[in-house]
Amino acid sequence: MAMAPVVKLVLGSIAFAIFWILAVFPSVPFLPIGRTAGSLFGAMLMVIFQVITPDQAYAAIDLPILGLLFGTMVVSIYLERADMFKYLGTLLSWRSRGPKDLLCRVCLVSAVSSALFTNDTCCVVLTEFVLKIARQKNLPPHPFLLALATSANIGSSATPIGNPQNLVIAVQSKISFWEFLRGVFPAMIVGIIVNAVMLLAMYWRLLSDHKEEEENEVSEGVVAVEEEDVTSHRFSPATLPHLSSFRSEETNGRTDPETLRNRGASSGESSASRDHQADAESQGESYPTTINSNVLLFQTKRWRRVLWKSSVYLITLGMLISLLMGLNMSWTAITAALALVGLDFKDARPSLEKVSYSLLIFFCGMFITVDGFNKTGIPTALWDLMEPYANIDEAKGTAVLALVILVLSNVASNVPTVLLLGARVAASAAAGEEEKKAWLLLAWVSTVAGNLTLLGSAANLIVCEQARRAVSHGYTLTFTKHLKFGLPSTLIVTAIGLYLIK
Questions:
Q1: pTM score above 0.90
Q2: For the segment 160-174, what is each residue's pLDDT rounded down to a tens digit?
């Protein structure tokens, strides 16, 4: 692709630079508008500067990716309502045999849940639970927070629905869910094991010197955490129904003359009801008690809840089976989401409000901005210079390509990196299996690259912020602590994937 005219090249570069600054530093002092507004701002500049036309901007938005992202978010919301993540949290503490066993469990649960429900969702839901368990067992929090974040990133690499960049790669490359899983899964398994071993090696002495609480106190604390976390983790806590119910109870608790009169009338009616019940019983009639009716009502609601939760799990399983069979990923996820909405059989607004629409808007703006930057010709020119040294048919070329992806993913973020390099990396490879390998290597390296620094992925930032804001047991995971482990882990795990992905 030839370079664009100088004016378009300069203006397009300025628009992309503004988008990059606002995406990487959302609270930059001169324009603290955040990532979502920053992506729209970059897209708007691409159109205003006439780098692309409005029709080209609309065409740049990849609707299949947005549909797949929306569908998986809705399914995750209903899974959370069905207590799936509560059960995952319970699995962490069930018959735990000490801090090292707990660390390995965090790695395993984080990896599996991230592959199925996206890494960001896993980190949102499990961070505070992991932090509370560590505090209750008098353990240092940062090894477990690092285990959660790094394992979430590695685990999410195994499936197209594990993270946003994999969604982009799966849709653009047209690699089926099963082929994607089969290609990356071995590297993911070995990567998780190596990551866990490195965590144990680095923090073995720290975990061995802890002072454990009494076993019965810990088990009681774990139960309390489970029940509390069921309501504390939500994608978008716009409403807090437990507060309104608390206020209504508080209001009902106040006594005034009118209330007392009503209670007196009510007690009179109760006395009459009891007299009527006694008369009925004396005449041999059957009169069900209030207690029995309440028990029956409770059991009915309980079984309805069990049936609903089972149906949610079955629909999710059906979605995963359909994806493995090679059905269209976007419409499979949307169909599963609408099936769950219909199954709920009530207004879906409270659940749909928890969808991260800001993320969907961010993707729209990013698609337009990156497409405009591609039309300047700069990415193509840079790739032409690098392509002779990044041939995936050779070990040296694969290493050079991986290094470029690692750097770009931490400088420009992983999703823009995939959008900029994806088609070029695939085009430089031979057709067939080599092209598929190029896409899978891009997915692996761009995902694992998120473990390099604290700013490398959204999952890392979510863990950091969730831990810092935790009530009564907050903890700050510093950039230095993350880099101390993230750097060697990223390099070693990335190298493993380059060898195992075929």
A1: no
A2: 999 999 999 999 999
